[in-house]
User: Fold this.
Amino acid sequence: MTATTVDKLVQLKVRRKDSTTGESYWEEFSVPFRTNMNVISALMEIQKNPVNAKGEKVRSVAWEYNCLEEVCGACSMRINGKVRQACSTLVDRLEQPITLEPMDTFPVEKDLVVDRSRMFNALQKIKGWVPIDGTYGLGSGPLISADHQQEAYKYSTCMTCGCCLEACPNVNSGSPFIGPQAMGQVKYFNMHPTGSLQKNERLEVVIGEEGIANCGSSQNCVQVCPKGIPLTTAIAELNRDGNRYALWSWLKK
Amino acid sequence: MPSNTVTQLNYTASTRKSRFVLSRLHSLAGLLPLGIFMVEHLLSNALAIFGAERYNEHIAMLQAIPFLPLFEITLIAIPLLFHAIYGIYLSFISKPNANVYKYQRNIYFMLQRVTGIITLIFVIYHVWSFRLGPLLSGTEVSHSLVSEHLANPFIFVFYITGVISAIFHFSNGITTGLITWGITAGPASQRVARKICTGVFVILAGMAVVSLFSFL
Ligand code: SF4
Ligand code: SF4
Ligand code: FES
Assistant:
């Protein structure tokens, strides 16, 4: 710690909520600055000394984190209005006071903690897995080319963080949309040679009520995804696959 | 305006595809009958640049098309009503956030909804003043009728706004339509498509503005 940074303070403004049913309210904090501090370390300072800017002792701010290196997806929140990972957001690159808000596209549990289970339900719905041996062995799967692996790899990095759903104008209480994360994962599992055994079942979700018809091509999802997953490419490809599948399955009826 | 909180997804197998089919028909209606008709209509109006006589001749020719009302109803009115109603529904279920996420595509997403509404108001007024109104009252539609109408500066500005909105809605609709039909999949091809559509917008809007001024 250099002498010049000792006295600097970081101003934080947190939108808090005491319980799932509580009202949300703003609370301000100021915490000592350290070089290379990120939003998580700022929140940890509040945890160490939960005193707000008015000097009152308050309940410590609740938030979630695990990996601290942008791979687990737990720490998503709206920082200065935009959704991103708290662990990879450096404090000195932000305008102050830094506003922290929960991703309220999801049900808010407490302060910055949200319930992201709709995304895990979505993965079950799209059959986000590759079927392997059941009561009998299915044998070894086909080989995958290096190109194919490279393309699939990008989608495999999805950490179910929810940033894409939070930024999507069409994921909200008025729309049934399952969201861009699920679309990316349909593309991912459908391009796997063994995963593609369930291709049509996944396409059923794509062309269903909660599916791709709800996307309005605002392309926010691809802009905010911290993993840089080409979500809009997946969406365009699923449009093509879904259109074909819908037409042919109808013509075959 | 819907609130931003979603409920849990339920697990029932999705068998209802009506939303999917409606969304494809919405795109198709906008591109094919409506888009083609709009371009044809703009070209016809551009004839006014070459004088009243040329314009009146063309109107007479169009009105001589056999079974004209049948085509107008099936190829224009029905697709238009469907496109408008479904489009309004779509604007109601989305929650634009271009104030926070100021990305170009997101701003266009919002503009697509705004221009859609302006275009609808404009088209209703326009159809009333130059098609249904004259049809009911037996007035002949001609260069002079349009000129008289556009002589009112408020109406003129309304026309410029309406026409530019419609052209924007169409050109931007081509770029999103190419995604809906799964043609431009990657970011590079989408960028090229956007450039071409910007060109389409500039050409059509320029032509339309010049045509409108030629009526003055
Ligand atoms: S492109 Fe579609 S899925 Fe992505 S943010 Fe826009 S509406 Fe949502
Ligand atoms: S697609 Fe990207 S933004 Fe969406 S949940 Fe996965 S990692 Fe997060
Ligand atoms: S703590 Fe894992 S992504 Fe931030």
User: Anything to note?
Assistant: Chain A has two domains: 3-114, 117-134+142-252. The pocket of iron/sulfur cluster (ligand 2) is lined by residues A 73, 158-164, 181, 184, 225, 227, 229, 231 (CB under 6 Å).
